[in-house]
């Protein structure tokens, strides 16, 4: 009798669960049917297509197709691409030396130059921020993926590549061909100098490998030269490593203050990143510069310092790239770069841009926007690049950090006379810090 009752209870529970979760069964069946479509298509191609097809190409193509239905930042990397991506993050790769911002408009790929890296082939031929690349070696790139676009730019050192870009000049778009020889690109991620006897200047180009180490070196050098206030330039900085953004923010924020937090669909994707108990430079007056090309990690730093009232932010609204990607290596050495969360500033503002509502990004405390032509002239202005000692054959005098400086000069009068209005405004603010009284103290 007891056995019968137990069976009856189990049967009743099973019936109730079946009634309560019919959608669950339906969803599983639906997913299986859809996956079966992919398997059927692959089988038909292999059996009937006019030529033999590499099965891995079909699988990788299907994976890319799935990821393409997501956002602009989720990507599927084939093994060779994943190897290259890892080397890019480490800060050394072959190519022409540009940082790009890629997006999709009207189902077409748009690749915009955010900055040519100083001393690289792209910089020497005067490619400019805002240039939109439309062809590589005569091949249209508006219908290719970001991975394929980067493959087209890469090649053996010394080989020639022609890049066609559209540039706005006098309110009109004009096409321009840039002929370059590929070179080994060693990304310089931190540059620094004294602007006057008291104001130091650090330009962080990217948050790539060793950036925190190089930033600390810059701070030590500038402090030894008598720096009493700092301008941190994050313009044209496309981002990079979250850990580096947190580390640099911690140099100026203490007391366990919030730097950034992430929030996604899963609870485990909620993470808080906070400062240490003590900051290294808690009272150093600080101004941060941003522009429309400042993205991701650079927005984390500027947002953290702004929300904690630790710095004045000057420039123009930043790009608004707030998605958190997780790089997931797969069994065949390919990888999936998947958006799993979004970044939020300490005050809870989403950094992610919303084109329709014109929201997102970091809004500066003081807006200073320069004309595009002025920005382009500044890109051509004299640039000092630090090289390792073994490259001393390139000429130049040893810098304060022991490295050799290599100087590229343009003699055009209007280039030499170009002024950086954003830096000039920052200098004005720091000279007035004793009057303002709020730049050097944490709240």
List keywords for this structure.
21 strands; 27% strand; six-stranded antiparallel β-sheet; 2-enoyl-CoA Hydratase, Chain A, domain 1; alpha+beta; single chain; 443 residues; Pdz3 Domain; six-stranded mixed β-sheet
Short account of what is shown:
This protein is of the alpha+beta class and 443 residues long.
Structural notes for this entry:
By secondary structure, this protein is α+β, with helices and mostly antiparallel strands. It has helices at residues 2-20, 22-48, 55-67, 79-90, 121-124, 146-153, 211-224, 242-250, 297-307, 372-380, 413-416, 421-431, 433-436; strands spanning 75-77, 92-95, 98-105, 108-116, 132-136, 139-140, 160-169, 172-181, 183-186, 190-194, 199-204, 229-233, 258-264, 271-274, 286-290, 312-315, 323-329, 335-344, 366-367, 383-387, 404-408. The chain folds into 3 domains: 25-47 and 55-66; 92-186, Pdz3 Domain; 190-381 and 418-436, 2-enoyl-CoA Hydratase, Chain A, domain 1. Helix 8 (242-250) packs parallel to helix 9.
Pick out the low-confidence regions.
1-20, 382-412
Largest sheet: 6 strands, antiparallel
Known CATH architecture of the largest domain: Alpha-Beta Complex
Overall shape: it is globular
- Report how far apart the termini are: 74 Å
CATH class type of the largest domain? Alpha Beta
- Helical residue percent? 25-40%
Rounded Rg: 26 Å
Number of discrete domains: 3
Query: Might you state the CATH topology name of the largest domain?
Result: 2-enoyl-CoA Hydratase, Chain A, domain 1
Q: Work out the number of β strands.
A: 21
